[in-house]
Fold:
Amino acid sequence: MENGQYVGSSTRLAIDELLVAADPPALAREAAARFARIAQKAVARLGRVTLVLAGGSTPERLYACLASEPYRTELPWHKTHIFWSDERAVPPEHPDSNFGMAKRALLDRVPVPADRIHRMQAERSDLDGAASDYQAEIAMTFAVTPAGEPPAFDLILLGLGRDGHTASLFPSTQALRETRRWVCANHIPMLKTNRLTLTPPILNRAMAIVLLVSGVDKAPILQAVLRGPADPGRLPIHLVRPASGRLIWLVDQDAAKGLSGRA
Ligand code: 6PG
Structure:
């Protein structure tokens, strides 16, 4: 696929947009521009913006781009609420912490008020309690009851694992079947660990979801996800189908190697 090619599509994922960037720096610049547009529109409309950050390594370049000019000065960071899609069962200073990565790459360099940085406390031994507390923190931010329908984040950023997972929704794990809670603890047998993750009910309420995929090692899974049959148990990313929000795939050429023609 050509660089910067847009394809509208009605695949099983009901993709609203798929953009192929030339390389990881171009992908980060494109994602930052989308991020900025969504944030500025949300603040104009509501006086604040609610963003969910992805973990893993791919978004780090995007976070560094957002922490640099012009975004560092231009974006309304003081009106921004930052949440996470998932977190590993480690303390925030641990090298594997998704919060820690975003803090180093972005949050230490932009003026988001401390009370608007909503960290998942996945290091707690009581992960179910941490999940309920995070759900309550989301509810309080949106001024809704934690027992009701999930609120709509303005933007959720997600990645794609080589096994088709997103957030910490891994193949054949319990959280894939969650239909009521917005946040839950999830045991990941293949990693022999537990994590905290947002669930499909709240993901699919988002106004916009940006999926960021980079690198040749993601080419096989991206092709399987976009070309193959719907299989949410084996490919949990297939559970991500926003009810009314936009699903935007931003991928680089290496990841898009297996894609050709219309998606
Ligand atoms: C995590 C992420 C996870 C990530 C994918 C892709 O905690 O690991 O939330 O869902 O987005 O595993 O990770 P990379 O960007 O490192 O390939």
